[in-house]
Write the structure tokens for this entry.
Amino acid sequence: MTDNCVAKRLNVNGIVQGVGFRPFVFQLAARYGLNGEVANTSAGVSIHIEGPAPRVTAFEAELAAKSPPLAQVVNISACSEPFKHCTEFAIVKSKGASEKFTLISPDVSICDDCLAELFDPRNRRHRYPFINCTNCGPRYTIIDDIPYDRPKTSMRHFTMCGPCQQEYDDPNNRRFHAQPNACADCGPHVKLYDNQRNGLPGKDPITEAAKLLRQGHILAIKGLGGYHLAVDAENSRAVQRLRRRKLREEKPFAVMSGDLETIRSYARVQLAEEKLLTSIQRPIVLLKKKIPNCLAAEVAPRNRYFGVMLPYTPLHYLLIDCGFVALVMTSGNRSEEPIAIDNEDAFDRLADIADYFLIHNRDIYLRSDDSIVRHSAGAARFIRRSRGVVPVPIFLKKPLPSVLACGAELKNTVCLTRQDKAFVSQHIGDLENLATYDFFKLTIGHLKRILDIHPEIIACDMHPDYLSTRYARKQQHIPVIQVQHHHAHIVSCMAEHGLSGPVLGLSCDGTGYGPDGAIWGGEILIVDEHEFERAGHLAYVPMPGGSAAIKEPWRMAVSYLQDAFGDEFHEFDLPWLREIEDQKIRIVCEIMSKRINCPSTSSLGRLFDAVAAICGIRSRVNFEGQAAMELEMLAADQTDRIYDYQWEEKTTYRILAQPIIRGVVNDIRTGIPTADISARFHRTLINLFADLCTVIGKQRHLDRVVLSGGVFQNSILLDGLIQALTEKNFEVYSHRKIPTNDGGISLGQAVVAAASFRA
Ligand code: ZN
Ligand code: ZN
Ligand code: FE
């Protein structure tokens, strides 16, 4: 060694195992002609490097700047170390694996190299539907336990053939230590069946499946995180049949197309959306429809958007390559149950929906639905955070004790924390049936195992009847902390941005159990991670019939009309009102006056429902929030006018909706188009909340506003409030990493519970 030589230890933390990080380091060292060694450790990857100082510096710089596609480096620490006088650079055995925890990569889409091989007739994996490498393929959904090695994955049933093993052992190969490595000789295979479980003949099941789709049949197709139900998206009768059989009347279906150019034939794609579509996570992206377009109207009726994704597995690519403009690819489940992942289970549950089954024999251990994102208010927003993203942690600003947070009722996710990392689970679903509840319990067990977390605290919602709350309270010997729904919403957004309180929290939401027993959801709170104070809210109105009012927005319309006009509203000549039987309206008024099964609510979601119903958009919904969503879709781009608004100052500020409702009714009577009414309603809410936040912010010396809650999926409201509050000199924070809906709540619950536990 010459004088200007140095020896260093570099420790790399983050998602650096099972993602090709060691071969990357190996190749980097070779390029700079440096010696040393690299090993996995309990905390990440550890490197010993020695050689001429300038080259070591260059090596360090490139290590920090570049990494393999699936790696996420959180930090690199460096220090000098004695020379080991290495004569080469070597990948050595894992060190100090006393702690078996490592960050596991999510499942990601097929990489360009594998895609090129897939369609290369000279390649030995030509048209092999399970091609993958260190940079792509399944991870999270095939792991059963840690450490992440082939015997702990569903690939344990397949023994690598000679050529595959050679790739696996060669640090210079793209498949070095790629656990799911396989080929047609040694790996999993696809097969085609009818719905009576009879195998169908034919050399190439994928081409045969494509033929059946082309003929208008419904196929159940096993994917990465579960089954999809697929039909040709241009075939209107096939799409209708799928809707009937799936008992899904109107909720939009997602579609998959082969490339951006094809997508552009039926939807608008902005640059930001193009990036989302082509990202390795391959989420479903909501894109504005082009009108007219070639897809069946039944794909997304009464909706301005299509949910679109690009193929993400080799199997998808082979299927789409058979010449489809788009395939409907909707979750393989029966209405609200979890998606099927198991072949037997799929036949049991989907045989009366699907005509044929394209299945394979690589097991899925943990289901993961497609993620859904929308580019709105200048950023990508998750509507559902699942496949492709989970289990990437949210990094917290300080370490927490280990918490299991059980989430809310709808769009449930759970969250487990480990030091400064919060792991929000994949989308579990609405905890309203046994199948989903079983999946909830399974996910908790699975995550505890693969993340090696033993919770010291359990967090859950305040609602006594949520299945997630009941689950939490059943756990013995672990303290349970119940967290108010909107407190959790706001803190989850704070956690995502590393904020400490106090902040002003604006929670615009559908439902949430308040400590007073009312259903909250239009709240201005003063929040830190320990506690919250209710500073303002929408004035209470009765919610006639409780949850029935969510399914039948006309009930909320009647409640708000009664609130604004008293009995006089019965005389109004509103077409939708005439369509509802008199007797039903009378009963609703009676239960409201006697307060029978009429919880009080301050929910903004319900006010949206009421206004949508009053405008005659719809009196009944097929899924939660549908009326509110359609009201948003209808809104005109501009508005010249807003409705009057008003609040009362008592111990808290109470926002009165009467002037708004009167304004809406007046507009309907004078024949103002619904598009303008909707635009005025949105603008009114934006001004109202921005003004009231300003009043409260001044009184309490708070200049940061945090936005959270399901109603912020409405991009007019989100965009408008971010602008209006920014103009009033607030720092405004909204969700980027997790959903603003109840899918994000488990994170907030975990942080609040940890803070209260310490206090
Ligand atoms: Zn690859
Ligand atoms: Zn092989
Ligand atoms: Fe909520």
Remarks:
- Residues 190-360 form a domain with the DHBP synthase fold (CATH 3.90.870.40).
